[in-house]
Amino acid sequence: MKRYFESYLVDWKNRKSRKPLIVRGARQIGKTYTIDEFGKKHFSDVIKINFEEKPEFKSFFKTNDTEDIIMNISAYFGKKIVNGETLLFIDEIQQYPEAIVGLRYFYENMPGLHVIAAGSLLDHVLNDIKYSMPVGRVEFAYMYPLNFFEFLTAMDEESLVDYLNNYKLGMKISVPIHEKLLKLVRLYYFIGGMPEAVSEYSETKDIISVERIHESILRSLEFDFSKYGTKTQQEILVTILRYIPSSLARKIKYVNIDPDKRSDAIKTALKLLQMSRIAHLVTNTSSGGVPLEQGKNDKIIKPLFLDIGLANHILKLRLVDINDLITISEGSLAEQFVGQQLLTTEPFFLDTQLYYWTREAKNSNAELDFVTEFANKIIPIEVKAGKSGTLRSLQIYMKEKKLRTALRFNTDQPSKITTDYDLISLPLYLAPLYKNFVE
Asked: Is the pTM of this model over 0.70?
C-alpha cells in the first residue's frame, strides 16, 4: 500500500541534519507497516526492536552508552549494525519511556546511524514523561489514515490521481470522470482511510468484512482506554467516542455529551482522546490575519473523528446504494471528509491544528467551516454537501476581515467567481490539492 509518508522518510534518510525520528499517530493507521516497507526498500538491513512483543528488549536500553546498546543488539540478532546501511527501528517505544530519553545519545554519539521510533499513545507518554526530554536531539513526524488520493491508489485508480495532479483551474473535467470521482468520494465515506479496511475492500469488495474490521478497530481503541484513565474516565471516554460521530462539525457542549458528568471531567476526557489522536478538536479563532493561533478560543471547539469510515460505522450507516444514499449527516460528513484531507496537506513534521470561525450574536449568528493559513495569508473554507447552498457566513467573514480569496468545496465542477473577492469553488475530491489552486 503506497503511503505518501514514505517519501518524507526518504528525505529524512538523506538529510545531513537528520536526527532520530519519532513517528506519532493513532493506533492502526499504518505506522509500523510504512516504516517496515521504507526500511526494506532503502536499507541493506533493518533491525526491529518491539517492546510490546518482547519486553525483555528493554534491558538493552537501561544504559545511555550507545556503543553498549548497539553491541548487545548486534549480538542478539547476530548482525553487524552499519552506519548508513542499517535502520534501527524501535516500535511501541511508549512501553519503555526511558528509551525515548535515550534517543538523544544516538544523536550525540552515533549521528551516522538511522534510528526511527514509533508507537501508539505516544502523546500520553510524552506528556507524562518523568525524565528530561531530548529537546533538540530528536525530531517528530505525524501520520494519519490514508487520505483520498492514497485511497484512490489503493483502489487501483492511480490514473485518476495523475489526472487530478495535472489538473489546472479553468480546465473542464469531463462529466464521466467527475461523476466517477464523486462516487469514489462516497465510497471513501464508508471505507475510510484505516489501512486494514482499505486493503480488505480493495481485495474483496466485501463491505461486511470492512464493517467487521471497523468494529475490531473501535474495540481496540476502547481497550486502550484502560491504559491511561481511571475507571470513571474510561466510561466517559467510551461515551465521547460514540458521541463525536453524531456531532461532527458542531460546537461541543459538555452537557450534551453527558448531563450527569461534571464538565471538567468531560473536558479532561476530551483532552485524552485528542492526545490519543482519536479526536481532532477544531478550535475557534477570531483572527483575521496570521497567526491564527493568536486569536484562538479553546473554549469554543468542534470535533473531527479519527476516520470518516469509523465514524459512519458508529453511526450505523450502511453502504447499500452509493448513488441514492442521503442522510441527515450529509453536511457533517462532507466537513469531516474535508477536515481529514486538510490534516494531511501540511508537511509531515508539523502537528497540524485546524481552526474555524464563528460569531454568536442576536439574530446574526454566522459560522465558517474552516480557516487556514497559506503563504502568510488567511484562507477561509466553506464546505457544502451538494452543489448549492448559501454563503452568508462566508460573505460576512470576507467583508469583516477584508480578505481577497476564499475556498468552497462542494459536488459541482471547479470554478472561479470574482466579486468583491475571489471565490475558488472545488469539488470535494480536490481537497488534498487545495493549495495548488490558492497559489
From this structure: yes
